[in-house]
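STAS domain-containing protein: structure, please.
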Amino acid sequence: MLRIEKESDGDTTSLRLSGRIQSANIDNIRAQMDDHNVHMLLDLGEVTLVDVEVVRFLRDCEDGGIALVHCPPYVREWILRERAEGAQPQVSDNI
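Here you go.
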């Protein structure tokens, strides 16, 4: 189960995510990221499990300028792999 705690100091909004994050939770996380006028960060220190769609969402967040802090090492590695795989050209089936 995912728990989201939101804190803001006016300049930065922090979402502390705890527990298991599944693809079904992405829309809820996006809804909490509604303040586009501040610096956003996602605190992943208490995340226990993610799926591939969540990893891609986190990659896209980071690529869009959202800071990921306290990211578990396995999630960080998975994000890096997804980013590297996305940069590689697609192999054609006609070869």
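Notes: The two ends are 45 Å apart (CA to CA).
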